[in-house]
Please model this.
Amino acid sequence: MKAERHKAILKLISEQEINTQWELVEKLKEVGFNSTQATVSRDIKELGLVKVPVGEHKYRYAAPPRHQVENVYGRLVRLFQDSVVSYDYSENIILVKTLPGTAHAVASCIDNIGWEEVLGTVAGDDTILVVVKPKEAVETVMKRFKALS
Model:
């Protein structure tokens, strides 16, 4: 429910000028989400929404700007060397084991490196699932991982 509400919020603020939390509560009601102002306030914080100017003394909610991580490859090399314990694959899934608490950082770098064979990652505390497409590309990604170690 929360993820669906978050999607709805992002869609609403991208399509409409929403200036206050109360306006957002009302717009959410119109699309089927009965939320309180307190819930919307938490959602805004979790989504990292920002207020951007739209005129003199007037602001609207917007999604945070996506920032490009500098030197993703260099960071991935360091993280792999410092955090990755092992990696192996089955079919089109690569399982990467990391030190506890480091999987999200490694997965974020893998997601941002721009390897077209990698559809995405799912990270836990110390485990990452890397989804590769097509299946034949797993060997290529495994070679890249080996070069990082």
